[in-house]
Design goal:
By secondary structure, this protein is of the alpha/beta class. It contains ten helices and nine strands. A hairpin with an 8-residue loop joins strand 2 and strand 3. It is globular, with a radius of gyration of 28 Å. About 35% of the residues are buried.
Length: about 325
């Protein structure tokens, strides 16, 4: 009987050193590298009674015969091995999905701008980013992460660090700032540069960069000189990517979201300083304008903003020539 067990073990595991890698759906299969003694000891009476004979023999035969089955969108084929071992199963897998980092501005002890009726910018930014997060997740084309999912403070440097830690390919900071002129209204989008495109944008950048005053004495904000140096380190490819995303936002907003005149602007925003991640700061409107504040308080309007942002993200990645995964 012992010899019979050994013969069956030889049949089922015809190469003791064979490594079988299956790229089919589900959890990864274990690597089979048994010794005859281990297999005989592990199977024991089940092997003698033949209860495992059917499924294990079918598995062994599957290693010998060509395999043409496909799973989902992947196609598999068996490739011969020069060493004479059993062929390995290889397949074409979908490319990894791009990672998007959403950054709701302000948070915690930093309220951001305070609207004419007392609305905090940090709450508007978080609600709009959450809506965009859910739309991106539902579409299934990208992986998406948020710098904060609740009401806590993160220094500007920490937001950039999070984007790098998650290997983001696009960084979007969402805001609804305030201006001295309450008549100014409309959305706009900003990219990084050494100098500001206009006086209004320079004032906005100064306000946003001062957020680190809430970080306390242990954190030292950067001087304007250091900010300029960092901006100069951003590589040209990243600048082009940021400008491309800004243009995509403007195009997506135009049919449904009111815009500032010359809505694509630039300044030395610290939160956009990543040297290799295309980054934009989106002002969804101004809390200093009663019409913008009232609109941004409405979930339906924030949904429109998020839908336009989703379209801009699609346009950006398609224009970048990147393969986009499809849901399902």
């Amino acid at each position: 009987m012992q010899d019979g067990r050994h013969r069956l073990v030889d049949t089922l595991f015809f190469d003791q050193k064979m490594h079988c890698h299956l790229s089919s759906p589900g959890p990864p299969m274990p690597v089979l590298d048994p010794t005859r003694r281990k297999v005989t000891r592990l199977l024991g009476r089940s092997l003698a009674t033949g209860t495992l004979l059917g499924p294990l023999t079918a598995r062994a035969e599957g290693h010998r015969a060509p395999h043409h089955a496909t799973h989902g969108a992947s196609s598999h084929q068996l490739t011969p091995q020069a060493s004479g071992r059993a062929p390995a199963l290889v397949g074409k897998t979908a490319p990894p999905r791009p990672v998007i980092m959403l950054d709701p501005g302000h948070g915690g002890k930093d309220p951001g701008a305070i609207g004419v009726s007392g609305t905090y910018e940090k709450h508007i930014a978080a609600a709009a980013a959450q809506e965009l997060y859910h739309q991106i997740r539902s579409a299934g084309r990208y992986d998406v992460v948020m710098t904060r999912a609740d009401d806590h403070f993160i220094p500007l440097e920490g937001r950039v660090d999070l984007a790098h830690r998650h290997k983001a390919q696009l960084f979007i900071s969402m805001h609804a700032d305030a201006l001295h002129d309450p008549e100014v209204r409309g959305a706009s989008v900003y990219t990084l540069s050494n100098g500001a495109s206009d006086a209004q944008t320079a004032s906005l950048a100064q306000t946003e960069n001062s957020a680190d005053r809430f970080a306390g004495p242990a954190f030292h904000g950067m001087s304007s000189e250091v900010q300029a140096i960092l901006a100069s380190l951003v590589n040209e490819e990243t600048r082009r990517g940021s400008a491309h995303m800004a243009a995509s936002v403007v195009s997506a907003f135009q049919p449904r979201i009111g815009l500032l005149r010359h809505p694509a602007r630039h300044a030395a925003f610290v939160v956009l300083k990543s040297a290799d991640i295309p980054s934009v700061l989106v002002e969804m409107g101004f809390m200093s304008n009663r019409h913008d504040e009232a609109a941004l308080r409405q979930g339906g309007y924030r949904k429109q903003v998020a839908t336009a942002m989703s379209a801009a993200i699609d346009r950006y990645f398609v224009g970048s020539g990147m393969n986009i995964a499809h849901s399902g």
